[in-house]
Design goal:
alpha/beta; Rossmann fold; 8-stranded mixed beta sheet; about 40% helix
Length: about 290
């Protein structure tokens, strides 16, 4: 099955993920932990990269590997792998991959990610540790789902946050926010006060202040991309003990996703170790 999604930015995402998985499995291989890798939006395990005009891109072979194959090929490996996708055809491809990697302990589920994540986190026991990838295609992930990850105390999370989707649904002019988008934004951002947080009165030209006076109903203007990303980061830090500064993934200079790393482990030593390695990864990818 030809699974077409992503773009050149996918290369950067997978590079970051690969580096972290190698570090994680190596650092914990001598510990008495059972190591889990989970992917809630697993897809088919591979993909054909597309640009914004739906034209196939000629890029190196390794970029056609999705996160599933990336994780399976990391050495040393994890003890258990959990791949989930709601699309039946994707699940069939995942079954084929499981057959190819018969030496790996692979569980495949066909659930909505907002059901899969709470159930996966609930199954983690005392000596379990996990890396979880959440990279939804668009608006599928509920903010409330992240609560289960944070409350687990056992998961290192890589979250692909759909920054461009939020930007499209919150136009610069606050008066142009469509009513039908509000429920989706509430679900994605986990609050109904996003409008107060993301919009501020539009600055008026000085000449208007001198001669026109202040309007009783000022126009509202959305924060810029950097401010939006800082607000999302602050929201995540209210929930997780540690959240690194996000890696911005772009296409032709336009922001697409914020790639977040968050640690659910409340131990300062674990957070310090994760902070150090993520800082190193950021420097290595430029």
């Amino acid at each position: 099955m030809d699974h077409k999604f992503g773009g050149i930015w996918t290369r950067k995402k997978l590079e970051v993920l690969t580096k972290y998985l190698r570090f994680y499995s190596t650092a914990l291989k001598k510990q008495k932990f059972t190591l889990h890798y989970a992917d809630a939006f697993a897809g088919t395990g591979k993909h054909t990269v597309m640009d914004e005009h739906n034209e196939e891109l000629l890029i190196p072979f390794e970029d056609f590997k999705g996160s599933v194959l990336t994780a399976l090929e990391v050495e040393p490996g994890f003890h258990r792998y959990h791949f989930n996708d709601i699309e039946p055809l994707h699940v069939q491809e995942l079954e084929n991959i499981r057959n190819e990697y018969s030496g790996r302990d692979i569980t495949i589920t066909e659930q909505d990610a907002n059901q899969f994540v709470p159930e996966f986190c609930a199954r983690l026991k005392g000596r379990d540790r996990a890396v979880l990838l959440l990279d939804p295609y668009s608006t599928q992930l509920d903010w409330e789902t992240l609560r289960y990850v944070a409350d687990s105390g056992k998961v290192d999370l890589w979250l692909l946050f759909p920054l461009s989707v939020i930007l499209r649904m919150t136009p610069r002019d606050g008066a142009k926010v469509r009513p039908e988008w509000r429920e989706t934004l509430n679900r994605l951002l986990g609050t109904d006060d996003w409008e107060t947080a993301l919009y501020a009165p539009k600055a008026k030209p000085q000449i208007d202040d001198m001669f026109g006076g202040e309007s009783s109903d000022p126009e509202m203007e959305r924060l810029n991309t950097d401010e939006l990303q800082r607000w999302v980061t602050a929201r995540l830090r209210e929930r997780f003990p540690f959240v690194a500064e996000p890696i911005l993934l772009t296409n032709r200079g336009r922001p697409l996703f914020s790639f977040y790393f968050a640690v659910a482990n409340p131990e300062p030593k674990a957070q310090a170790l994760a902070k150090g390695v993520v800082s190193h990864i950021r420097q290595s990818i430029g």
